[in-house]
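WARN no homologs supplied; continuing
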Amino acid sequence: MMAVMFTGHLSRPVMQTEPHRWEGSVRNDQEDRSARLLVKRKAIARQLTGLPIGTQVAITGLLHIVPVINDQGEPRVHLTIEVTAVLTAASKKTFIQKLFS
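OK structure emitted
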């Protein structure tokens, strides 16, 4: 495991799957990567559960990498991030625009 920061938009809403466990998905279009989000803390889950699909977010967490081979025999990787913090539900304004608004 390693600590990572991942930015992108929610591609699957964060929903509770078990007691004290929420799952969702975030996609980064610039790098063509997506990662499954795993949340185990209720305070973090509250920050993410109300966000609609497509919302820009930045999260940090522990990255779990699982190598797999797909049906065509190509190597792939499944990324799962155990979320430790939500840095932002990013707005469309830049930092400079926020300063002068």
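The chain is about 15% helix and 60% strand.
OK
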